[in-house]
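Hey Z.,

So I finally got round to the L-homoserine thing we talked about over coffee. Here's the setup:
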Amino acid sequence: MTLTVYAPATIANLSVGFDLLGAAIASIDGSCLGDRLSVSRSATGISLVCSGPWSHKLPDDPTQNIVYQCAQNFLERLPEPRQCGLDLKLEKNLPVGSGLGSSASSVVAAFYALNELFERPFSDERLLLLMGEFEGRVSGSVHYDNVAPCFLGGMRLLLQSPSSFCASIPYFKDWYWVVAYPGTSLSTAKMRALLPQEYSRSDMISYGRFLSGFIHASYRNDRALAAAMFKDIVAEPYRSPHIPGYEAAKLALAETGVMASGISGSGPTMFAVTDDLVVAQKAALWLKNNYISEPGGFAHVCQITDTGACVKQIQDTAL
Ligand code: HSE
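And the result:
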């Protein structure tokens, strides 16, 4: 049997929830914004073949590929280790180091696909912990704000308490999230190293106010309040000077009428949010014309999607 899965792009942090909040997104025009992975069992060893628009950015040595490492780890952790190998085919559709949860998409696709192939030996929570651990290997620290929404869909708040690891938060279904990737890459580890080790008490209070205010507004369905809460205290002031064109784009986007804009994950992708499709398209056009600096850059009008990792195809290869 060959199983093909899809794992969507994500916007982590959403300005207000550094390392704690993220959302799975889908382009409204159906453009593929997520990695696909096909897995099947083989007699022995692990083989990995990569294709797709961003496969040329992956390591040449397959053993250095995070998907390969996830597969190796998955086999080792199986409750009853089995003598078998795996054939993996990764279609790398998300640019590496983009801020769209590219590594999370590959990691989630790998663990989700293998868990399905082996008839679910691990619970969702166990899988999520594994996904966070592997995402941490790529980005330098364990955080779940990409892997959780990528795996489970929707908008997710990480509570990491024994009774609730990750909560689903209601989101505004008619909001458009414009994402623009300029075509350049940034290392998450380096973007994290730019952040201060400590924050002032007033920053801490503001951070708490904006995050709790945004979550409160989401539950109250108060879109004006939610929009007013989009302030990034933790990352934007320290990261934005290192993202070429970001500050000019933020000012120009405000002119287009969007409610707010911010850094998607650790950048360089920007997001802008609005409830007006015409404004979203205007913002996307501005970003296409002005924010994209390298071939391969793109801008898409997206919405949050409830569909996280999902099976796209099951082929009976014995036939
Ligand atoms: N919360 C993470 C960060 C997301 O901003 O560093 C990037 O993977």
